[in-house]
Amino acid sequence: MLDSYSTKTDEENNRVEVVKAALDIAKASVGSYDAAAACRTDTEMQYVAQQIKALADAIEEALKVS
User: Fold this and answer.
1) Measured CA distances, 6 to 15, 41, 47, 63, 64 (Å)
2) How far apart are CA 33 and CA 11, in angstroms?
3) Is 23 part of a structural domain of the chain?
4) Residue 40 CB: number of other CB atoms within 10 A?
5) Which residue range is the domain that position 59 belongs to?
6) Residue 66: pLDDT above 60?
7) 37-53, pLDDT tens digit by residue?
8) What secondary structure letter does DSSP report for 4?
9) Considering Cα of 33, then 23, then 64, then 61, what sign does the dihedral take?
C-alpha cells in the first residue's frame, strides 16, 4: 500500500502515497453492499470522505515515528 513512500523523496509525493493508503482503507471500511443498501453506503461514504484528511495525517505521523 505504501510501497512508494520514502523518507528520501519530497513531501508532496509522500503525501500522495499516504492519501492513496487512506483511500484504500476507506474503500475497505465501506465494503460492498447490494442495491438495497445504497442509501446506507452513501451515508458511510460521506462520513469517510470527511475523515480522509485526518486518516492521512495519522498515517503520515505514524510513518515519521518509525
Assistant:
1) 10, 34, 29, 9, 10
2) 36
3) no
4) 11
5) 34-66
6) no
7) 556 667 777 888 888 88
8) T
9) negative
Over residues 15-34, the pLDDT tens digits come to 888 888 888 888 777 765 55
How many domains does the chain fold into? 1
Query: Are the CB atoms for 60 and 26 separated by under 8 Å?
Result: no
In a domain, 8, yes or no: no
44: cell is 458511510
pLDDT of residue 35: 47
For residue 28, the model assigns a pLDDT of 78
pLDDT at 32: 56
**Cβ contact 59:18 at 8 Å:** yes
Q: Is residue 4, in this structure, part of any structural domain at all?
A: no
Q: How many residues does the chain have?
A: 66
In a domain, 13, yes or no: no
